[in-house]
Write a structure and sequence with these properties.
By secondary structure, this protein is mostly beta strands. The chain has one helix and twelve strands; from the N terminus they run αββββββββββββ.
Length: about 250
């Protein structure tokens, strides 16, 4: 498992370092690890590029959960400015299984709306700065499958033992521009289908609070100029789960 973690982390770093500019900024997939009716999961994550994510989920029954996710980003740099907002909701099925009933399978689908704008800045040798501004509103449909395991593994840190939970998720997202403007001139809208696999590790600080590290990639199935797979997911965050089965031993 640790070797797998290292491999996916290395791949994520490669994509993070070499990613091209894209108007699509993927959010951190919601992986609530729901186990029983009445369980509430909330999380806050920040990617290494500064994309702030807020995820929440609630189990309305022993096998049905609902999701609400949001993300935002506002970065200003010397060569590029980028702003992004996304709000999405969904629902689906979850169940626990395994010899100790400590493995969780979740299947969710949902719909989201967002906007992003990017401004490229280029300075000539004479010191004149030119701008290329791109703006879009978009709709997003997603389907994701989460698999996680609340196994009895531990990390020793400062003389204390902290339980570790592991999980993976595969999200398929169809993102479709509702409008696209470049330098105040309307442009043909683009769409793309993204495959977004991620791997996460959680360190249990208390029965309800966990630290999460997420690494993942983003692959576009269509060749596009602006709605491309130029950004990946690499983040740290905190997840709080209240209620549910007592599987964090």
């Amino acid at each position: 498992m640790l070797k797998r973690f290292s491999l996916l982390s290395s791949l994520a770093l490669v994509f993070f370092a070499s990613g091209c500019s894209s108007l699509y900024m993927p959010n951190v997939p919601n992986t609530p690890m729901l186990t029983a009716k009445g369980e509430l999961s909330t999380g806050a994550h920040i990617t290494f590029r500064g994309n702030a994510n807020f995820n929440s989920a609630y189990a309305v029954s022993d096998h049905i959960g609902v999701l609400l996710n949001g993300s935002m980003m506002n970065n200003s740099r010397k060569k590029e400015d980028f702003r992004h907002m996304l709000l999405e909701g969904g629902g689906g099925y979850f169940t626990t299984f395994g010899p100790e009933n400590n493995r969780v399978l979740e299947i969710y689908a949902g719909l989201g709306y967002g906007s992003s704008d990017r401004t490229h800045k280029k300075e000539s040798p004479e010191g004149v700065v030119s701008y290329d501004r791109q703006e879009t509103n978009f709709k997003k449909l997603f389907l994701q499958v989460n698999y996680s395991s609340k196994k009895k593994r531990y990390l020793r840190l400062f003389g204390e033992k902290y339980p570790l939970n592991y999980g993976t998720a595969l999200r398929v997202s169809h993102v479709n521009m509702l409008g696209f403007v470049r330098d105040n001139v309307s442009q043909p809208a683009e769409d793309n289908i993204f495959l977004e696999p991620i791997f996460f590790t959680r360190m249990v600080l208390s029965p309800h609070v966990q630290l999460q590290y997420t690494s993942g990639s983003n692959f576009g199935l269509k060749n596009r100029d602006f709605m491309t797979a130029g950004n990946s997911v690499l983040s740290v965050g905190v997840v709080i789960n209240v209620g549910g089965l007592n599987l964090r031993k």
